[in-house]
User: What shape does this take?
Amino acid sequence: MKLLVVEDDRETAAYLVKGLCESGYTVDQSGDGREGLYLASSGSYDAIILDRMLPGMDGLAMLGALRAADIGTPSLILSALGSVDDRVKGLRAGGDDYLVKPFAFSELLARVEALLRRGAAGTATTKLRVADLEMDLLTRSVRRGDTALDLLPREFQLLEYLMRNAGHVVTRTMLLEHVWDYHFDPQTNVIDVHVSRLRQKIDRNFARPLLQTVRGAGYCLRAPD
Assistant: This one.
């Protein structure tokens, strides 16, 4: 699942991004309210975590603009302002939850998980399936047939992207940008190493391989003919 963090304090932003990525999420980050609004307006995020006091545009103003544009992405407000009135203002501005700084990362993670569950109760997809391979985005579990597969967080992110693009060739550059969230030299073998490890887990000991290498192009996850 993909999250957007809008936080102008570099130390806090780095702390959040690191923890969320280690928890298996794909994370984009911005330190400016206007840029955050631009990114969030794409509607491509499963949840937004944003500071209330931001340069460029206040966090509450950013939320108000999103809600006015009928973008209902679940949002968690972070703020040092913790009075009842402050929390009420945040929720009425369009926030779905409000967490006062300083906070424990474990609590933030639990609140994000709750937001995602509530969002999934609406229109969001909670399960992905390709042939007999199934991914549950809420429990973050993967099965092939009756066999549970134990994936590392990066392997889960890689498989999620491949399953969302099942039947289509995805290039190494696409994987680097969407799974790793930054640019590598396209000639690096980091992708090949992770794909090889993932293939061992999802295809080894199964009669029909799903993950294909498309020579000179990239990779494709597809159901056998």
Remarks:
- The chain has a mean pLDDT of 87.
